[in-house]
Specification:
Its cofactor is heme. The protein has 370 residues and is α+β, with helices and mostly antiparallel strands. The protein contains nine helices and ten strands. It binds protoporphyrin IX containing FE (HEM).
């Protein structure tokens, strides 16, 4: 067999012209695939906002932190389960809402922002990301923040806001003129910022409410679609700030308090869906839905253990909001596809980088090591 036959796997031997044609076709495929990647990456459209540009802007604003998420960089992994109340069964065919269903869950609590070693602060936006592992390999991944609405309506506004809110190294605060110009161009963000500022700041993660903010659709067995927004509402009472927190001696006090709380007893959140009605905005996460909308308690997330970020746990997961099981679908909210694309870009970059240890370590159990 000739060398050319070895390369093409063809047998019997082809004439040289046929081989050239085949190699040309393969070359065409390679160029086509590269072109498709370049197109998706936005290289042919320099004015267009792409996932690469969004993630570049995170890096410009926060500086380089190889191996870490470009946003919500400081975090701690969770392990637990979800117990269904069965009240979601009529709204969504997702198996996790079926009567008696218990679904394994892993997740991550985190602080918004791209600084993996920032000191915990009461007013930093907190997040709860969860990965529900349903039977038959289906998954539901969801990222939720402890604010009532999202500060921007579109990916373009997100991109502009990242730069406008960048702290000035001289003052540690954003440039007031840049912020003013941003709010003038995006008045819905000014209204949202006021709602976010008014929110109640709880003492920690365990007594905080985390919201999906974007609208989704629940799809029932008979095909009926219901617009929903969900929240994870704490199952434990609000706690007062501890002396340790007040002293702020511990740079990781929010995470350490949460680990200690989980060690004492499982931490619970009710998954509550708010059902949208005609006219409720599904494509504008800056606007809340009326508080009187019907809400349904779908079940309880029960966190039984925490784990510092490490190889193979929540550190290496992309909580893409469009990883959804049958029975939950996306909406016309333009942030959803932008999030999905930007998270994939952040994940791809960090997955290929060397890893430094997370700022949040396992807190030794009381009495351990004495
Ligand atoms: C266009 C808008 C948005 C952009 C560009 C964006 C960007 C990002 C990026 C790049 C990450 C890091 C992903 C990774 O490396 O795994 C991230 C994490 C996260 N985002 Fe967004 N985000 C957007 C909107 C939102 C909204 C509306 C929410 C609503 C709650 C949200 C919640 C979260 C959460 C909870 C995480 C942390 C997930 C984890 O712990 O891994 N984001 N975001």
């Amino acid at each position: 067999m000739s060398l050319l036959n070895d390369l093409t796997g063809a047998s019997p031997a082809l004439n040289p012209r046929a081989v050239l044609l085949r190699l040309g076709a393969i070359g065409g495929l390679v160029v086509g695939a590269a072109g498709a990647f370049a197109y998706v990456g936005g290289w042919f459209s320099p004015g267009t906002l792409t996932q690469a540009r969004i993630v570049d802007r995170f890096e410009r604003v926060n500086g380089p932190h190889p191996g870490f998420r470009r946003n919500h960089a400081k975090g701690l992994c969770l392990v637990g389960r979800f117990e269904s109340t069965s009240r979601g069964e009529r709204l969504s065919k997702a198996s996790l809402f079926a009567a008696g269903q218990i679904t394994p869950v892993t997740g991550r609590i985190a602080l918004a922002g791209g600084q993996p070693y920032a000191a915990d602060a009461a007013t930093t936006v907190r997040s709860l990301a969860l990965r529900f592992q349903l039977p038959d390999g289906e998954e539901w991944r969801t990222g939720n923040n402890d604010i009532p609405v999202f500060p921007v309506r579109t990916p373009e506004a997100f991109y502009a806001q990242l730069l406008a809110a960048k702290p000035d190294p001289a003052t540690g605060k954003p440039d007031p003129e840049a912020l003013k110009a941003f709010f003038a161009a995006n008045p819905e963000s000014a209204t949202a910022a006021a709602l976010i500022k008014e929110r109640r700041i709880t003492s920690g993660f365990a007594d905080d409410t985390f919201r999906g903010l974007n609208a989704f659709q629940f799809v029932a067995g008979d095909g009926t679609e219901t617009p929903v927004r969900w929240a994870f509402v704490p199952g434990q009472a609000e706690t007062a700030e501890s002396a340790a927190q007040t002293a702020r001696a511990d740079k990781n006090y929010l995470f350490d308090e949460f680990e200690t709380a989980v060690r004492r007893a499982p931490v619970r959140w009710h998954l509550v869906a708010s059902l949208g009605e005609a006219g409720d905005p599904t494509a504008d996460a800056t606007r809340p839905w009326p508080a009187e909308r019907t809400s349904v308690d779908l079940g309880t997330v029960i966190v039984t253990a925490t784990e510092a970020e490490a190889d193979g746990n929540c550190r290496d997961v992309n909580f893409d909001p469009l990883v959804l099981p049958a029975g939950i679908a996306g909406s016309d909210d333009p942030l959803l596809s932008a999030r999905s694309a930007a998270y994939a870009q952040s994940f791809a970059r960090r997955a290929g980088e060397p890893k430094a240890p997370s700022a949040v370590h396992d807190v030794p159990a009381a009495g351990a090591g004495l």
